[in-house]
Amino acid sequence: MSTASRLPQILGRMTSKLPVTVDSTVRRLAVLSLIGQTVLVVTGGAVRLTASGLGCPTWPRCTDVSLVNTPEMGIHGFIEFGNRLLTFALAAIAVLMLVYLWNLRKERRDLFLLALGLLASIPAQAVIGGITVLTQLNPWVVGLHFLVSMALVVIATLLVNRAYGRTGRFPAVGLPALPGAARPVMAAVALFSAVAVTLGVVVTGAGPHAGDADAPRNGLDWDLFSHIHAVPAYLVTAGALFGVFLVLRDRIQGPFRAAVLLLLGVTVLQAAIGFTQYYNGIPALLVGAHMLGAALLMSAATNAADIARFSPVK
Hints:
There is one protein chain. By secondary structure, the chain is an all-alpha fold. Helices cover 71% and strands 0% of the residues. The N and C termini lie far apart (64 Å). 39% of the residues are buried.
């Protein structure tokens, strides 16, 4: 029998060893996906804040003659190429997730499609990153690169929730009933978080940390848009405080309580970083912390809105 004719049998034996339920490996891979997408935001920030945006001056190669960075390129080449390498690690995690979900691709289509979305986004992000380099760090393209990363943090958060059965069509934990206002308020918090992050990208495009000394800026009034950016951030804070009020008033326990407390903690921390950097000349380290905070905020807001959506209403 030829190898080609035996291929279905070989694949059958391989897939028979894959899980038929959502096990601990699937859950760990979901968590790794979320951690990886968050780390990618941080390393992308390091590229820009260390002026390493053109550390690899071309794409898809690092130089015209080398796929990887060379010692002559110095620290900027290492930082930029390191950020590119992380993309391959995320691709490996996404592929492993799809492999482990293969026997569940029909039963748990929700998980399979979310994992597929993470994998499909990787070449898209690579192309946007390439356009970023080829346009000499155009601030609008850089901003798009960051916003796609934020969307991937959202998708990875939903993947974690579904994998652990906190939300979705296959609940593994019981969610307590919530007041009727909880669902729309948390949905609004998630929306305003996205608006705040988007406006933050505009502020960044007008600010001093361009990723390279010769990179262009968007030409907008940085101070004006900093204040505009703060408006949805205030609304997010108000929504998080209202969520905590509901939890305390109705003595709500379980995932929603943890979600709103986490949301409030991240929101307060992000606000503190934002105010501190504004009044201290926008130091690079605080800008990097603010970028990490943006990823944590999007994850926390998505988590709270997702749990509220699938909780019964009183």
